[in-house]
Write a structure and sequence with these properties.
The protein is an alpha+beta fold and 219 residues long. 37% of the residues lie in helices and 22% in strands. It folds into 2 domains: 12-125, Phosphorylase Kinase, domain 1; 133-203, Orthogonal Bundle (Transferase(Phosphotransferase), domain 1).
Length: 219
């Protein structure tokens, strides 16, 4: 039985490396280079525990679902589960590598991630007021009046400051290609935070031109 166990384990690991060696090597190299800046790595079992087996769903996107969770220290989090076999893992690497480098009041904080075989997840700070989209595209006048013109202006300025930080304030410039109301999240004080860095690109600060292949962002 012991021999069979190790044979199975070896076969599983071989399959994992055979299917996805490039993303694994890229992720490990990125974590090594970032050192203390790297967000915490969790197992898929940890993710299931913190979400209570994905009990409360917050939303759904093309990438997969977002679930409400809680860390051991009591902090609430939003857990973004990426669909299996979704692309080649490029968006996952982009998000961990880019948002993991940031520290700004208008950028959502990436607290951790999970990369275990085909299981991928991103653990973010929880934003109790959800996305800006629901406050803009709604026929409910009470929701619209909840913010008001002055607050909308502050949110717009906050988003602009977040983008300025990404483009000019980081040691490594981060180009953001998909800004829209749905990815602007609001905390308890309606402070806006830019999220969803799957389409972002790292760019050397001195570079004035970056090559892009294919369409970016949302049609």
């Amino acid at each position: 039985m012991v021999v069979l166990f190790f044979l199975f384990k070896r076969k599983y690991l071989f399959k994992f490396w055979k299917e996805d060696p490039e993303i694994h090597e890229t992720l490990e190299a990125m974590l090594k280079n970032q050192e203390f800046l790297a967000p915490k790595r969790y197992t898929y079992s940890d993710v299931k525990k913190m979400t209570n087996s994905f009990k409360e769903k917050l939303g759904e996107g093309g990438f997969g679902g977002v679930y409400k969770g809680m860390l051991k220290d009591g902090r609430r989090v939003a857990v973004k589960i990426l669909k299996e076999k979704k692309g080649n893992g490029e968006d996952f690497i982009n998000e961990v590598a880019s948002v993991g480098r940031t520290s700004h009041v208008n950028i959502v904080t990436l607290l951790g991630f999970c990369y275990q075989g085909s299981k991928r997840a991103l653990i973010y700070e929880f934003m109790p007021n959800g996305s800006l989209e629901k406050f803009i595209f709604t026929e409910n006048s009470l929701i619209q009046r909840q913010l008001g013109r002055e607050m909308f202006f502050k949110i717009a300025v906050g988003v602009a400051r977040g983008l300025e930080y990404l483009h000019q304030g980081c040691n490594t410039r981060i180009l953001y290609f998909d800004i829209k109301p749905r990815i602007i999240l609001l905390d308890k004080d309606f402070c806006p935070k830019i999220s969803d860095f799957g389409l972002a690109r790292l760019c050397p600060n001195r570079a004035s031109i970056i090559s892009m292949l294919g369409a970016r962002g949302t049609a």
